[in-house]
Amino acid sequence: MFEITQNGEIAVITMIHGKANTMDLEFCEGIAARFKELKKSDAKAVVLTSRGKIFSAGVNLVRALDGGANYFREFLPALSKAFEAIFFFPKPVVAAINGHAIAGGSVLACCADRRIMATDAGRTGVPELAVGVPFPTMAIEIMRFSVSHCHFQEIVLGAGTYTPMEALSRGLIDEVVEPHDLMKRALAVAKGFAAVRHDAFSVSKKQIRQPVADRYRSESQRFEEEINGLWCAPEAFARIRDYVSRTIKKA
Length: 251
Prior knowledge:
alpha/beta; 2-enoyl-CoA Hydratase, Chain A, domain 1; 6-stranded mixed β-sheet; 4-stranded mixed β-sheet; globular
């Protein structure tokens, strides 16, 4: 599911979960566990990438349809914990986006401190509303933090996906590079981060991202019950089923 290799002081996590690195319960628990292990390791920074042509296609909707509401009740907290484990990771994280990063896959990339996308990587964006489900609180707070403020509503409410250059102009990613340069550039950025005194980087990152933690605590109490109810409602499954038939299965 995850392959971890070492490049000097940099740990490289390669996602290899099926064809599209879709996010199911096992994926979420697994990636959170890997980042927990790396927190205690000698690695000074992490590069997150994938094998194949898809960085991550987001939530495994076919699995969700099979699992029903009970599965969602178990999955949604695990999804938020996975995002939290990466977003608040005390060491530098660089996302090397080598393929499509859609919905939860785009949020996953936005958890990183720097997001670098290959020119031929496809598209990225968060079409959750097109699927018919709202954003979990942690996911929307990560997007609020990561993307350009003036494009935030467009990205979330418009439910579109973007080419690498379009994503760059909206703050969904930080750099666009040629495919053959992607890992070289990601490792160079990670090594640059790693050269900074670790505890100074860690406390500064915590200061920068603390407002997200504060908003998550307050907003999850306000909205999470309603959000979970909308994910588990019969209408949600009808809309997911329609979206899967129009997009995933067609593809």
